[in-house]
């Protein structure tokens, strides 16, 4: 059984916002901007231009040269900087050429990114992100939390965190996800629901199993959370 962690306030200084400029992708911008305002963070708006087909694919990312695709990307990123959703927020633009997953992973490391926010297409589940087939690798390999915004989420300029669903698996260490969920809930005075899905069991054993798991979930919640959170 994992030990209840101490909840410390998370610090977000750099939020990475990768975009392919589609409506699905840009719909995630207000969510990135809300987090940036709460934490006083900088938004790094990023577009990755694929390697040119006739060139050997580089192993490392390369500064994008001023061809038509790159100039177009810079122009669109400049327009995004003037989006009302990011008014008053410090924003920087990054245009690189290379393989998407590799470029984003290096940017996370080199620019000390704390959080990634991106939009998803959603037609085929999380494995098909709007950024392309390589975006699934971002989700699985990023060394920082990744927030995905699905296609059914309406663009909300006044988005606020009111209720957080934190899904955990007690067979694994829930501490990392629980730390972020509890910190975000405290920072935003939001309701948090901690959920674990249990396997199917014979109906006569289900109440006992549910009660045991409920007690185990209670045990991973730090005691000092009761100072600002009422349990139910």
Report mean pLDDT, rounded to a whole number.
Answer: 81
Molecular shape: elongated
Number of strands: 8
**CATH topology heading of the largest domain:** Rossmann fold
- Structural class determined from secondary elements: alpha/beta
Structural domain tally: 2
How do the strands of the widest beta sheet line up side by side? 3-4-2-1-5-6
Poorly predicted ranges: 125-132
Can you put this structure into words, describing what you see?
The chain has 232 residues and is an alpha/beta fold. The protein has 2 domains: 14-149, HUPs (Rossmann fold, 3-Layer(aba) Sandwich); 163-227, no CATH class. The chain contains 7 helices and 8 strands. It has helices spanning 23-26, 29-39, 68-81, 100-110, 135-141, 175-188, 206-219; strands at residues 14-18, 42-49, 62-63, 91-97, 115-119, 146-149, 163-167, 191-195. The strands form 2 sheets. A 6-stranded mixed sheet has the order 3-4-2-1-5-6, sandwiched between helices. Strands 7-8 form a two-stranded parallel sheet. α5 links the parallel β5 and β6. It is elongated and about 65 Å long. The two termini are 21 Å apart.
């Amino acid at each position: 059984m994992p030990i209840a962690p101490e909840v410390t306030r998370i610090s977000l200084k750099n939020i990475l916002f990768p975009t392919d400029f589609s409506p699905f992708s840009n719909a995630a911008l207000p969510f990135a901007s809300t987090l940036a305002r709460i934490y006083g963070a900088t938004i790094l708006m990023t577009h990755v231009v694929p390697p040119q087909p006739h060139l050997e694919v580089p192993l490392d990312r390369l500064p994008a040269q001023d061809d038509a695709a790159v100039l177009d990307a810079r122009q669109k990123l400049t327009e995004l900087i003037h989006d009302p959703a990011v008014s008053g927020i410090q924003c920087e633009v990054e245009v690189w050429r290379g393989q998407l997953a590799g470029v984003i992973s290096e940017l996370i490391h080199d620019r000390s990114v704390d959080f990634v926010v991106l939009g998803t297409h959603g037609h085929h589940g999380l494995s098909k992100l709007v950024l392309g087939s390589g975006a699934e690798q971002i989700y699985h390999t990023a060394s920082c939390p990744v927030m995905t915004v699905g296609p059914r989420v309406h663009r909300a300029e006044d988005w606020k965190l009111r209720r957080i669903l934190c899904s955990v698996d007690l067979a694994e260490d829930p501490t990392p996800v629980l730390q972020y969920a509890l910190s975000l809930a405290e920072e935003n005075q939001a309701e948090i629901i901690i959920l674990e899905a249990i396997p199917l069991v014979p109906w006569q054993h289900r109440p006992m199993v549910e009660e045991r798991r409920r007690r185990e979930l209670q045990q991973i919640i730090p005691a000092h959370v009761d100072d600002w959170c009422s349990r139910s």
